[in-house]
Amino acid sequence: MNPPAPRCRDEWVCLVAADNTDVGASLTVAQLETMPWVVTYHGPTASTPAARQMRMLGIEPHVQVVTETFLTVPGLVAGTNRVALLQRRLADGIPDALGVRALPCPFEAGPLVEAMWWHPMYDDDPEHRYLRDVVTRAVIGIDSVDIPLRQK
After folding, report:
1. What Cα–Cα distance (Å) separates residue 6 from each residue in 2, 69, 111, 119, 141?
2. Which of 35, 69, 92, 112 is least enclosed, having the fewest CB within 10 Å?
3. Alpha-carbon distance 11 to 111, whole Å?
4. What is the mean pLDDT of the chain?
5. According to the model, what pLDDT value does residue 82 have?
6. Range in 15-29, 46-60, 116-130 with the lowest mean pLDDT
């Protein structure tokens, strides 16, 4: 029997500027429908599960800025009235000085699960075993630590 593939869980949060006076301690679905958005784009069929869930609920974001990486999202939200979806663990690492805050999604965005899967023919491949071991060691304990949402 093969060991389970390492998994890393996270959740989606909404990122807004810390000085956005239109947003209080929480967001509403109505606000998401009218606010300008920063979204990530990685290709013609790429979409996050949270974005698909949002569209299934009838929320079509008014996209103002498109970026290719989640790492640029905070800088594109800071000092504006924009909103973006971001991974909670990434949002928790944003310095306060950048001027953004993370809020819970006002809809069920669904969990974000990163997993590693491979074809059984690579189970005993030394290079593949090494790579799986490196990834496993990198994510070990992440799911066992509950990091509360840090509101900025």
Report:
1. 12, 24, 16, 15, 10
2. 69
3. 5
4. 83
5. 97
6. 46-60
